[in-house]
Write a structure and sequence with these properties.
Helix content is 49%, strand content 0%. It has six helices and no strands. Helix 1 packs across helix 2 and helix 1 packs across helix 4. The longest helix has 9 residues. The N and C termini lie far apart (48 Å).
């Protein structure tokens, strides 16, 4: 298994059983995850210390100056 953010989060929480206990679900449910479900990201972050951006960069992109500004396309290029 590759060392994904989810794998790291499970390890940092003390394994699937410990993570499940911390976030209120079964270890069997966690073992079925391919990626962290959107509704569990914040709880997994709190339980493991692995950031929400690392767990789901598609949902939690890094906030930066360019992320806050909309892209403006000039019609006069």
């Amino acid at each position: 298994m590759s060392d994904t953010a989810l794998t790291l989060a499970i390890r940092m929480a003390g394994g699937p059983k410990a993570l499940g206990e911390r976030i209120g679900i079964s270890s069997q449910a966690i073992s079925q995850w391919v990626e962290c479900p959107p509704r569990r990201v914040i709880a997994v972050e709190a339980a493991s210390g692995v950031s929400r951006h690392e767990l789901r960069p598609d949902l939690y992109p890094l906030a930066g100056p360019s992320a806050a500004l909309p892209q403006v396309v000039s019609a006069h290029q």
